[in-house]
Design goal:
Number of domains: 1
Distance between the termini: 22 Å
Amino acid sequence: MAEPLCILTAGKVLMLAISTFSLSWTHSVEKTSWTENWQIAGGQLQIVQARVQGSGAGMDPPEGSVRTAQGWTYVPHVAPLNKLVLASSGATASPWRLCAADGTCVLLGETEGDATVLWSGDDTGCRRGP
């Protein structure tokens, strides 16, 4: 069942009714892709899987990673989050790309310094702030 994902970026709030999403970006040093798969459950954000195209510059795959044609895939051991803050340093080769399961995608953090905050909304939508 879809839940509201609230996105605060560039001073505006966007709401997507989704239950899962992916975040992807290009690493600033290695120029390889990184993807995380997330789910929204119980009013929190939970990372369920991550994939990094290659290793190096702080991107060494953790223990238990599996090598596939797309890179190293693993399950991060991170507690559910009330909010996720995405920084935009201007050093990365691309903005964050958030995609829903239906193929809807939005680019986030295209401008240096624009922090983006993600959180799960509730039955009133995104009125509850991050």
